[in-house]
Design brief:
The protein is mainly alpha-helical and 191 residues long. The chain is built from 10 helices and 2 strands, in the order H-H-H-H-H-H-H-H-E-E-H-H. Strands 1-2 form a two-stranded antiparallel ribbon. Strand 1 and strand 2 form a beta hairpin. The protein is globular. The protein starts with 8 loop residues before the first helix and ends with a helix.
Length: 191
């Protein structure tokens, strides 16, 4: 993908972020914070070990054909506008789907759901009963992880998640804290 798009740098994506935020009813600061953390400081060509791609680290690109079609986006995961719009649509779905009895730390649960998966977070919320303590959710995920012989893990209600390991779960607290720190910083930019 190198050479097809120039890197716009940290502030160069703001018009696209603003458009996506308006379209999906999200805060610009939150989109930018997740984008910064997911792509390693705005690397539009980032590819994770699990195959997620672009600024918002979108996995399963083919699953979002309807979003791309609705907003006339190219079928290219490294296109900044396409990736930000698809990522914002995923983030919006996390807000819409994180269980309502989430309490004071709903935003942290939504951010974690973007990173580790909706079902995993909702399962932990169901088992804990709320998400007033994000740390309690992470501890619950950790307690319910069943390690397979190859070192990968599966939560007792989920299967076929070879990337789900203790390290991935343990990484949720620093991941969410990093996004929250960037979010607070970007809130002053987008006032």
């Amino acid at each position: 993908p190198s050479g097809q798009f120039r890197s716009l740098g940290e502030d160069g994506y703001d018009p696209i972020i603003r458009e996506a935020a308006t379209t999906f009813g999200l805060e610009q600061a939150l989109i930018k914070a997740i984008m910064s953390k997911e792509s390693g400081s705005f690397n539009e060509f980032a590819v994770s070990p699990t195959g997620c791609r672009g600024l918002m680290q979108v996995c399963s690109w083919a699953d979002y054909a309807s979003v791309r079609q609705q907003y006339n986006l190219p079928d290219y995961p490294f296109d900044p506008r396409a990736n930000i719009f698809v990522g914002a649509s995923i983030l919006k779905s996390k807000f819409d789907s994180v269980t309502a009895n989430c309490g004071i730390e709903r935003l942290q649960a939504v951010i974690s759901a973007y990173n580790i998966g909706q079902g995993i977070i909702n399962g932990a919320i169901t088992r804990v009963g709320n998400c007033n303590s994000f740390t309690a959710l992470v501890n619950n995920m950790h307690q319910n992880l069943i390690l397979n012989n190859d070192g990968t893990g599966t939560l007792y209600t989920f299967t076929n998640k070879p990337w789900l390991t203790y390290a991935k779960i343990d990484g949720q607290i620093p991941y969410v804290n990093g996004v929250m720190e960037a979010y607070r910083m970007y809130q002053s930019v987008f006032l």
